[in-house]
Specification:
3-stranded antiparallel β-sheet; 362 residues; alpha/beta
Amino acid sequence: MLPARSGNGHKGIYMKRRNFLKQAAAVAAIVSLKSASGQDVGASELQGGTALSSLPFSSVVNGIGRRKLGLSDAEVSIIGVGGFHLGLPHVQEQDAIRIIRRALDEGINFMDNCWDYNAGVSEERMGKALQDGYRQKAFLMTKIDGRTGPEARKQIDESLRRLKTDTVDLLQIHEVIRMGDAEEVFKPGNVINVLQQARKEGKIRFIGFTGHKKPDMHLNMIDAADRHHFHFDTVQMPVNALDDHFDSFGRRVIPAARKRNIAILGMKSLSNGAILKTNTVTAVEALHYAMSVPVTMTVVGCESMANLEEKIGVARDFKPMSTEQKIAVLRKTAPVGGDGKYEDYKNSHIYDGTINNPQWLG
């Protein structure tokens, strides 16, 4: 079973909406979700991101689909290898290297990482794996926590050194988990200015942000970008079959991102494994559901070669769920999803690295 450049000032960013609006209109009919007892449960309508179709492939490599990243011509595989798991103590370094290289050989090109994962071990292992020509096969993403200019610059340079590369394809601002983050990152001299300069210097190609806490915090960042005439290339958020029922990113953030042609990166497709504890859907159902909304890519965790082979199989077999299939999944998860019990990253500090380590912000 499964475990766990585009830049600013794009002309037409807010004009490419016809397809989005047509698609939204096509699913405007509300579909009532009922439990087996016939009572309304949790999220009672198919709407927001869930109501929108999966994005088409731009190409297929070794049986695994790829999609364009937002407004760019860069292509990324529909699933990506998460860097956190690869740096865990029980995962041997050589195993992590083999997992990364096998994924790249099989057609998975999106590699996820972060400056703070496992005190830098995750980036170091990925950097070693990307030697011997493998860097050219990868679309490499990492994230930084620094909000101030000096801290952001330091973390970017440390990540590049660990990853043994001169350029990261995508650099994302990590853990937007405070309502004040948007104001902070856009202050003159802070992280947005640093990222823009790093892009000019060729250290990064695309800019995005991530978070797992509240949809309002993501929307605040998107609104702040609008006010500053800045375009995020990507936004990363939890996308899973529980999210629709509680403080939903899918309902609120996905439509806002789609309207602006921001590529959506999905994470926590199994809600950090908690969705399996609900005994409502299988791991494959959960992952297919998460991949069947308009995400560009879904990050998956792999701690072993067996994990990776399962995920490769899921990617090669992937067919977007129909509206009826998505409704069926939501019917199953609605009775357990309404209070957020199985999405503790939304309502606790367990996964908030910068809450526990505020010095990382600078």
